[in-house]
Every structure is written in C-alpha cells, then in structure tokens.
Design brief:
The protein is mostly beta strands. It contains no helices and seven strands. Helix content is 0%, strand content 54%.
Length: 90
C-alpha cells in the first residue's frame, strides 16, 4: 500500500519559472525542470495543479501530468506555460 512505499529525498533537481518576452511586449511565464546531477535522470513524472482565491471565489485548475523519459545531465526541459490568469494561484 501507499504507506509501505519508501520515498527517497529528491536532490540536485530544480524547478524554475522564467519570464519570457513576447513580440507584442508582454511577458509569459514558462516552467522548467533542471537536472543539476552529473548523470541523466529517467522517467520523470511531474503533476501540476493550481488552486486559490480569484474574485472571492475558490478556483482549482485541472491536473496536468508530464512525463520526461530522459533528462540529460546539467540540462533543463520545458514543462509548461503558466497562463496570466493563473499567476495568482498556488
């Protein structure tokens, strides 16, 4: 069962949210997974979901899942774009 699974601490992996400029002068925010290890990491599954208050109402986004079969050493991979309307969510 879930209680029997031993989870190892994740080290030498980072997430970054990076502003990127658009041709019209606006910015969008892109998320990246960065492998800081000297070797590759395999089968990385990322689950993302947002929630928070917008105009006094509780809002939840859908759950997105991304699988990266291989992330090379000292490399980053683009995960997903964060739409402007979701920047206020956690």
């Amino acid at each position: 069962m879930k209680k029997d699974i031993q989870y190892r601490k994740v080290t030498e992996v980072a997430l970054a949210v990076v502003p990127e400029s658009n041709p019209d002068g606006t910015f969008t925010f892109q998320t990246y997974l960065i492998n800081l290890k000297e070797g590759p990491i395999n089968n990385v599954l990322i689950r993302s979901r947002g929630s928070g208050m917008v105009n006094g109402e509780m809002v939840k986004t859908s759950t997105l899942r991304h699988l990266f079969e291989l992330v090379g050493p000292q490399q980053g991979v683009k995960i997903e774009l964060v739409p402007d309307e979701l920047l206020n969510l956690s």
